Amino acid sequence: MSIKLISVRGARQHNLKNISVDIPRNTLTVITGLSGSGKSSLAFDTIYAEGQRRYVETLSAYARQFLDQMERPDVDTIEGLSPAISIEQQTASRSPRSTVGTITEIYDYLRLLFSTIGTPHCPSCGKPISRQTPEQIVERILSLSGSERILILSPLVRGRKGEFKKELESLSRQGFTKVRIDGVLLPLDEPIRLDKRKNHTLEVVVDRLLIRPGVESRVQNSVQTALKLSNGLVQVAVIDGEEFLFSEKLACPDC
User: For the whole prediction, is pTM greater than 0.85?
Assistant: First the structure.
């Protein structure tokens, strides 16, 4: 059953004289009265203060240390109250481009709301963007059907012109044995010559393995290595099958 009222009982904050009031939820309610009659004391110092206090109490101890702790207002009970925000009146316009949303700062709350509940998309290609932890990436790899042979790759160069001699030499010194350039697997112990006028995609082969019980720690180590090399990207290629690109950062893996 949905709560329909905010019930305030025995409000005595500041100049309020034991006020009790029911305010309907999901409506626009206006509090009017003479100057000094207690409008702000009821709206801001009682209802808002209690809503904000309850919200802060739900946060972790780490988060609470960065927020001002509000004291409980002088009131018997407040029921049906949700976490609250307060938008106070502003008199001066900040700039000619200011709007009601920016002056009252409600735009900041709306921006936070949409960034929290929304699904971000890449502004260039329109694909949904998601951030995945190394643990989620490992779990996704291990969920592939059994007996799949896979390559764990670290994308270092994606669609750029050059010969990339220094990059290839560095990979060889680090102990890697194979790379995939433009979709072709090549050994690092043999000379690799690239046309510097053409775009190339260079991926280092971090590991090649068979998905089976007991490879969890190996997959985890390989994913960590791939993410470190490419600054947050890892490519998983199923031999003769699909390929998956994972991003550790909230950024489009393609663009």
Answer: no
